[in-house]
Specification:
The protein is an all-alpha fold. It contains 3 helices and no strands. Helix content is 83%, strand content 0%.
Length: 113
């Protein structure tokens, strides 16, 4: 695998893992405050926490795989990179929605007298 592909692989999976970690933290926090959540929202937070944990684990697995295999031994190609971009897009979009919610809540609290 060339150093350019390695950089792409590490970048995609690092960003995916970071976004998934943010998402997992947020949804676990929501679960910890369950008494303030309705049952359907708690189930949704649990499901999204599991999805985030899976995305983070998958990304960390692929990052670890790069350190175990010698350079050039992994069949990394454009189709693989496109699939990894989809994982990043999903985790990233959820992160954007979470950050938007957090910023809006913070802004609304600051506007109160």
């Amino acid at each position: 695998m060339s150093s350019a592909w390695e950089a792409v692989v590490v970048g995609l999976d690092s960003l995916t893992a970071a976004c998934a970690a943010l998402n997992l933290t947020y949804f676990l926090y929501r679960l910890a405050r369950r008494r303030e959540e309705t049952a359907p929202r708690a189930v949704a937070a649990f499901a999204l926490a599991l999805v985030s944990l899976g995305a983070m684990g998958e990304s960390l697995f692929f990052l670890a795989l790069l350190t175990v295999h010698p350079a050039g031994s992994l069949p990394i190609a454009l189709p693989w990179a496109l699939v990894r971009v989809l994982a990043l897009a999903g985790a990233g979009l959820i992160s954007i929605l979470i950050l938007r919610r957090l910023v809006a809540d913070r802004w609304f609290e600051d506007a109160r007298p």
